[in-house]
Amino acid sequence: MTGKFRSLFWSTKAVGIVVALTAFATIPSQSGAPPERTGAPGDGTGAPGQSGTCSDVGCHNSFDLNSGPGSVTINSPAMYVPGETVAIQVSVAQANVTKFGFEITAKDDSGAHIGSWVLGPNTRRTIGNSNYLTHSVITESEWTFGWQSPIDPVNVTFYAAGNAADGKVDAAGDYVYTTSKPIVPNTVAGVDELKEADAFEILSVYPNPSQHQTTVLLNLAKLEEASVSVYDLNGRRIANENFGSLAPGRHELAVNLGNLPSGLYAMRVRVGNETRSRPLTVVQSQD
After folding, report:
1. Quick check: pTM over 0.90?
2. Closest CA relative to residue 13, chosen from 58, 55, 43
C-alpha cells in the first residue's frame, strides 16, 4: 500500500517533560512521518507557516490546525514510577476518514528530549531521529506503545498530533490535530523500589509480543514471594499469577494471558516488597 505522508505539525505549550503527537489527514505514508512534526517546543520556529506540524505550508495545509470536526487523544496514567515503562495509547478520530497517522516525542521543561520509546504494534521510530515515534501503517486510527521514563523524577507532558486524511494522493482536504497531557513522577513508589534494588532482576519477558501466554525470566538474590500482574492502559488489573516463595537463582514464570485483546499492557512483577514493570504487547490472530 502506498501513499504520501508529508509532515506532522502541532503546537502546544511545554510543561515539564513533554511528549507530542499529531493526527494527519491526507494519505499518510506507511513509512511514517519525518521527525520534528509534533508541534512540541523546538519543532517549529513559531513564525507563520512554521508551527512544527503537518498543517504548515506545503504539507497538509488545506485547513487551519485543530479546525476540523475530529480530534487526537492521549490515554496514559496520571503518574509514573521513575525508571519504569509507561503504557500509552494514541487515537485519532474523525468521521468519513479512512487514512490516519501520528507522531510523538518527549521533552523536559528545558526543551531537551528525554526518555525513550518502546515499540508497539504498527509503530516505528522516525528515520534519523529516535526521539520521535510514528505510525507504520495508515489504516489504523489507534496505536499503543511504551515510553521508558527517566530515572530522575521530573514532571512530564505528553504532546500529541495526528492526521485524518481523505485518502487522495495530494496534500489537500486533510486535517491536523494536536493535544497534550501532563504526567508527574510517583516519587514515593520510586523510593520504595530503590530500597530493594538488588532483590531481583528481570532478565527477559518472552515471547513479547505474545498471544495467550508469556514467560518472565527472573534472577532472585534471596528467598522471596513472587507474583506477576497485567494491567490495561486504564490501570485495571486484568490478570494475576501468584508463584509463592521462590529460592535464590533463576526462575521462569509462565503467565496465562487468556484471550486479551491486541494492544499494549503493563506487566508488574512483584518480589517481596519490590515491584518492577515491563511493557507487554498482545497480538491476537486475525484468523
Report:
1. no
2. 43
Asked if the domains 17-186 and 196-282 are classified in one and the same CATH topology, the answer is yes
Handedness of CA 139, 144, 150, 153 (dihedral sign): positive
User: 255 vs 168, 189, 235, 271, CA distance in Å?
Assistant: 45, 24, 18, 15
Domain boundaries 17-186, CATH class: mainly beta
List the chain domain ranges. 17-186, 196-282
SS3 195: helix
Find the DSSP H helices in the chain.
Answer: 187-195
CB 165 within 8 A of CB 134: no
Give, for all 287 residues of the chain, the pLDDT tens digit: 333 333 333 323 333 334 444 433 344 555 667 777 777 887 765 555 566 776 665 667 778 888 889 999 888 877 777 877 788 889 999 998 888 989 888 888 888 888 888 888 889 898 888 888 888 888 888 888 888 888 888 888 888 888 888 877 666 778 889 888 888 887 654 434 434 456 788 888 888 878 889 999 898 988 999 999 998 877 788 999 999 999 999 999 999 998 888 888 888 899 998 888 888 888 776 55
Task: Note the CATH number of domain 196-282.
Answer: 2.60.40.2550
